[in-house]
Amino acid sequence: MASTTRQFRRRVADLQLGNYLPFYSRLSEEQRFAYKLLAPGLAMMCIIHFLPIIWGTLISFMGVDSTYARQWHNAPFVGLENYLYVLDPRTVIGGRFWFSIRQTVIFAVGSLVVTYVLGLTAALVLNQKFKGRFVARTLLLLPWVAPVVVTLLIWRMMFQQQSGIINNILLSIGIIDEPIYWLIGDNTIWTLVLTHSWTQFPLVMIMLYAGLQGIPQQLYEAASIDGASRWQKFRYVTFPQLKPVSAVVVLLVMLWTMINFTAPYVLLGAQPPRAGQVGILYIYEFAFSNFQFGRGAAMSVILFIIAMTMAMVYYKYLFDDDFTEDSQ
Amino acid sequence: MARVIVDDLTKEYNSPGGSILAVDELNLEIDDGEFVVFVGPSGCGKSTTLRCIAGLETVTDGTLHFGDEDVTDQKPKERNIAMVFQNYALYPHMTSRENMAFGLKMSTDLSKDVIDERVEDTAEMMGIKELLADKPKALSGGQQQRVALGRAIVRDPEVFLMDEPLSNLDAKLRAQMRTELQQLQSELDVTTVYVTHDQTEAMTMGDRIVVLNDGKLQQVGTPLECYHRPANRFVAGFLGSPPMNFLEVDVDLESGTLSNSAFSLPIPESAVDDVSGSKLTLGIRPEHVSLVDAVETHAEPDHLIETEVTVTEPMGDITNVYLDVGGESLTVTSDDRLGVRGGDTVHIHVPAAKIHLFDAESGEAIKHSDEPIDSTRIAEASGHAETA
């Protein structure tokens, strides 16, 4: 075993990486070690993320449809035609694409608000000293730990118009007079928001909880002496102190929701009601039902650009400040 | 401004291993405008007492009064106090101005302009006006300290509470802030309770010091009282650096001597009537012991002890000489430039007038040195010396 390792090491050394990569030879032993540790992760990232991004971007400039499905590399180069087509609101497809972008934004912002409020509330509760808080913490993590498809299917059952438990409860306590259509019609986007938030809030909770634990107790004592009430302590100490971790949470939840496929697909199926047609679902339906891979890829790239732009703008204006300003 | 009256204050913490008594029936009266320093080793209950006065801890038993008002069960915000914390506890996300204004904003209904004005006046007084727009992170330790003090001062509280506020500063800055704090306190004339484990701060800053150990009050008095008339062995050993020397001695009332294996000293005249029992602890401050050159012509020949030098520590202005007296270590502080070295045999003089005697078991003081402890007494003593 040891000799195999030694042989392997010698082989790696024989490669003389320094000769091929001038910068590599300038690195200290420690830095080289760091790169070696990073290498497997980076390789995975390349295969899973970077290559598809490049491939998808490539296809978006080509006329790949059912004819070329098996030999995409032979498809003609069409320049920006795919983009112009899907972005033109006057065409049926363009119109539906724009609508799906709108639904995506509602989905993302709605989920963000619900997730954050739920997560923060749960984190604040967990941060109190009470008996059984460790049990509570585990229970609250369940929605996130449970297989997401299972959770979503259960929610789908509960949201059924006739047999679902949610309508039954609401009817029996008299909040509604008639069963609500949760999974068809205009409500679907909100059903989507609620369900997705349910699966995501424990992560937000845990991150904010960690943030809460990091706030020095002395700040609360100082605030007590300064005369702040409970609410004022939250408003002027807790909330601002959570800003750095909130910044991360907001960014992650926004991006993850925008590109989330599982929740809409499991809850609403491949051909969802119009209101539930978020971007990612529409792209999927369009590309894989109609075999319009080129145009589908163009839509994907647009969604990607929207998400990235949002992330960058957000990063520039919020993130930067908050990360230079760590809590003491 | 207020008198602070602590009456039978007791604080117990519940812990898995049983309850811990942090403060044990503490009684104390702090006068209006007085600067009182709580001093003692870690875990002596000084911070806990302060936190009880602040209202950050609930009191297990006893009462607290500010003036005539019973504040025992009041919340911190109802007590009109300001506190400076060891780590300053500035709000990191707020500028210095916001930090200082926060208390006024929360606890008063003053208009923004009035608050601004008060903050600026205080900042001017503290010399931090140009730092008002900066956040704590951009400030040095000393500057943060000033902002924290400013935040306390701007509130114009009845009582200032300070929990080791200087311990995070470097030595030079600490000495400077010590003086400044004293000046500030006397200008503002606000009742101040100051907690420290640093006996230099205790000795130099307080009008009175309160020495605590194991949650129990050991002594309350002016710094010089506590230094020269320690109530017990703990206080004697805690105040002073290097600390007081202690030597266990046997009492022989017949021959009138205090002795151990290395020496035999006459029982000081002033203490003869108070000495009883067979064992005592003799205490003598390092600065009161001197090395003797002319043994034969010495005025108090029976108060000389022959010893061996173990180590010398030249400090520049003074030299600490460590000696071995019958297996016990004894320190002498001298401002002479001494020619002694480790291994030398020397004679030391232990003046009868400067000897402290403590009960060997209880540690209670039986006899004190005759050092004057207040300015009038000092004047008297020096006048006395002149006439003599």
From TrEMBL, chain A:
Report the CDD domains cross-referenced here: TM_PBP2
InterPro entries registered for this protein in UniProt: ABC_transporter_permease, MetI-like, MetI-like_sf
Question: Cellular location of this protein?
Answer: Cell membrane
Q: Does the keyword Transmembrane helix apply?
A: yes
Q: Name one Pfam family in it.
A: BPD_transp_1
Provide the Gene Ontology terms for cellular component.
plasma membrane
**Gene3D superfamilies with a match to the protein in the record:** MetI-like
**Residue ranges constituting the ABC transmembrane type-1 domain according to the UniProt record:** 101-314
- Which one GO biological process term can you cite for this protein? transmembrane transport
Which keywords does the record carry?
Cell membrane, Membrane, Transmembrane, Transmembrane helix, Transport
Q: How does it sit in the membrane?
A: Multi-pass membrane protein
Tell me its family: Belongs to the binding-protein-dependent transport system permease family.
What's the protein name?
Sugar ABC transporter permease
- What lineage is this protein's organism placed in? Archaea, Methanobacteriati, Methanobacteriota, Stenosarchaea group, Halobacteria
UniProtKB/TrEMBL annotation, chain B:
Cited function: Part of the ABC transporter complex XacGHIJK involved in the uptake of xylose and arabinose. Responsible for energy coupling to the transport system.
The record's note on quaternary structure and interaction partners says: The complex is composed of two ATP-binding proteins (XacJ and XacK), two transmembrane proteins (XacH and XacI) and a solute-binding protein (XacG).
Q: What is its EC number?
A: 7.5.2.13
Q: Name one GO biological process term.
A: carbohydrate transport
CDD domains given in the database record: ABC_MalK_N (cd03301)
Keyword Plastid on entry:
no
Q: Which PANTHER family match?
A: MALTODEXTRIN IMPORT ATP-BINDING PROTEIN MSMX, TREHALOSE IMPORT ATP-BINDING PROTEIN SUGC
**Reactions performed catalytically:** L-arabinose(out) + ATP + H2O = L-arabinose(in) + ADP + phosphate + H(+); D-xylose(out) + ATP + H2O = D-xylose(in) + ADP + phosphate + H(+)
Protein name, as recorded: ABC-type D-xylose/L-arabinose transporter
What GO cellular component entries does it have?
A: ATP-binding cassette (ABC) transporter complex, substrate-binding subunit-containing
For this chain, one GO molecular function annotation is: ATP hydrolysis activity
In which organism is this protein found? Natrarchaeobius chitinivorans
**What is the membrane topology listed in the Swiss-Prot or TrEMBL record?**
Peripheral membrane protein
Please indicate which superkingdom the organism of origin belongs to. Answer: Archaea
- Stretches the record annotates as Disordered: 367-388
